[in-house]
Amino acid sequence: MYIFFRKCTSRHPASGALQLHRMISSSEVATALRPFYFAVHPDLFGRYPQQRQVNEDSLKLLSAHLESLLSQQRILPSTPRSLPFYVRASNAPQDRGTFNLIKVPLERTVDAKVLLRRILESCNLPTEYVDKMPSTKNSTAPPSGTHPEGFQQQQQNSFYYRKRSEYNFGKEQADDDDSPFEKEFDLFQFRIKKVRENETLKKWLRKHVVTATVRTKAVQELQEEVQKLREDVTKQLGLREIIYDCGWNVEHFRGCLKSLEKLAELHPGALDGLKDRTLVFAAFTGVSLEGHVMLFTGDVQRNWLELIKTIDKHDSYLRKLPAYEYALSQVLRNIRIGRRKFMPKAQAMAYASHLRKITTALLDYLGRSKFPKSWPQDLSQFELVVESEAGPLMVSPTGQLI
């Protein structure tokens, strides 16, 4: 058992009095709710996924409520008024698949004993253990009748009380004992609301203009450094252009340029394959359908070097793409093979593999069957776009088959 003392505030009955709190430990709660856990445990509903999921979700919410109640003596604003649980109708074999839905109420009180009793009573479970536990409700001396005369009137005339009343106007008021933290939460919300109302665009700009100026200046200096580094690397490797097609910030772009510069210093002759090419820092490593050399920004230098050394192999696939597209077009009755204007970037090697797979699958189908008779003999008026395996099957707004 844990006992501690604290001094009362003006919110409680007598100023300067002492309150005695008896806090229930987590082991006592587990012991008291043991029959309840045996009745609603999700493992008992393995063959009934719906009931199992309901009980599992409700137990998570109940656990969070009890943890907040025991550790912080507060009620979470997100705590529902009741939780649904499924329990077996009976232990008879013929009623094995029959369940009763029970709404377990969560009392809006910090007295854990009251909460435990209501949980057990809602499931018709014994409460002897809970009845023997001392109450956790605050005992105060002197009694509430000893308020100084005019204390309540003084509290109601205070600024925060009036503002809180204005904020809560029209709401259903709850008793202080049932929701001890509700008024504090409403007051907190009221303060936030007032701050937001007083925050005009002019005030916000005035508050952040210094920070924006400092950051803009820092970014400008960094961009100038990156631009100079890009020009140096482009000239050093004989590149046509360096493009940064990645969602990361400019600092990451600088890191990529420095890594490429260091790679050129360590392997001066190995990067000759990049001459007169467009280099793109992107989300994958390979050669794109446009013939650009793509380097993944998250790769290590060794992977970049392996691609650059085998760039001729990737270029060979790039040269074969028209033949693969023509073969697929012939199988699909002269359908046009096109590409979307803003289609995702793809490797030439992977795109060639997709074209071969589709062509082979269609030839296998035609070896066993025929195209539907409703199909026209010539599909040249249609256009087919082949994208990655993870792409959607759809018809684009322009009529392309994707």
Automatic annotation (TrEMBL):
Keyword Aminoacyl-tRNA synthetase tagged: no
Keywords carried by this UniProt record: Coiled coil
Organism listed in the record: Anopheles atroparvus
Domain annotation DUF4460: ranges: 22-125
Pfam family, one: DUF4461
Superkingdom of origin: Eukaryota
Chain intervals for the UniProt region annotation (Disordered): 131-152
Segments forming a coiled coil: 212-239
Name of the featured protein: DUF4460 domain-containing protein
Keyword Coiled coil attached: yes
Residue intervals of the DUF4461 domain: 199-402
Cellular component per GO, a single term: mitochondrion
